[in-house]
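Narrative summary of target 7.
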Amino acid sequence: MLYPLTFTPIFKDKIWGGHKIKSILGKDFSSLPNCGETWEVSGVPGNISVVKEGALVGETLQAVLEKYKEQLVGKHVYEKYGNEFPLLVKFIDANDDLSIQVHPNDELAKKRHNSFGKTEMWYIMQADPGAKLNAGFNREVTKDEYVKAVSDNTITDILNIEEAHPGDVFFLPAGRVHYIGKGLLLAEIQQTSDITYRIYDFDRKDDKGQTRELHTEQAVDAIDYHYYGDYKTHYDKKLNESVNAVTSDYFVTNVLHFDQEVMHDYTHLDSFVILVCVEGALTAQTVGGYSFDLKMGECALIPASVSSVTLIPEGTMTVLESYVP
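Modeled conformation, tokenized:
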């Protein structure tokens, strides 16, 4: 029988990675020089999550999906995505600025890479004083203006750059230029895709003196050049209420900020649910008496066949609850 699944994190060292994954989230990546990302729930080929506990321990997410199909992901999700798990969840520690980048939409990604596009969201978990990020442009930009700004290294002049604070949410549809700035620790929920077009990498070199590959030509046709005014996602973080932060074609994410027990009934959803603990700690219980603990920096995949989950916080917790609409 299917039960809530937790997975062994996949650690990624990055040229911009740091040590908050260990110092704040308590995850040990001692075999790596740093850790820029942990992939927590992943169906990306070559980086597929492995079940950490219970009867399915040691099984890959892919194998569980192929065996249980709509029991795991829901009928409409399985009809749409088949044996491809549709979401990827990461924690990201930016000890330095990431590259300025963009992701293609489904249509372009399908044509160029036979892949899904990449729409994503960020939830800021911790921010050093003054830490900033980029989402979108700071004015209307033409394709020609953009190409010129890239060629003469003035790209940062046309970017919308703003300070980020814990609890901030940014939704980044495919096509939106963005980068995560130094000093931010965040949770990222995205489509299952690993396609990134790197536009500018601040001229940095790796330990062998090499610069990283740029994808300036490919990025030009992937970018949304419109100016949207306000790029932060506004939501009311209310105590003991489930608050919707993001609703998109690919995922819905609610913010659960609770200091009391709450039961969530999922019988109306035809989807799995991913719970991402971004603050505090909790114990979760499902029908049939299965229980598991989550603390800040941990995730659980609730199969579509599990009808409800009761969350019991230790003090105050904040959890991101995501599913496919």
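The first strand starts at residue 10 and ends at 12.
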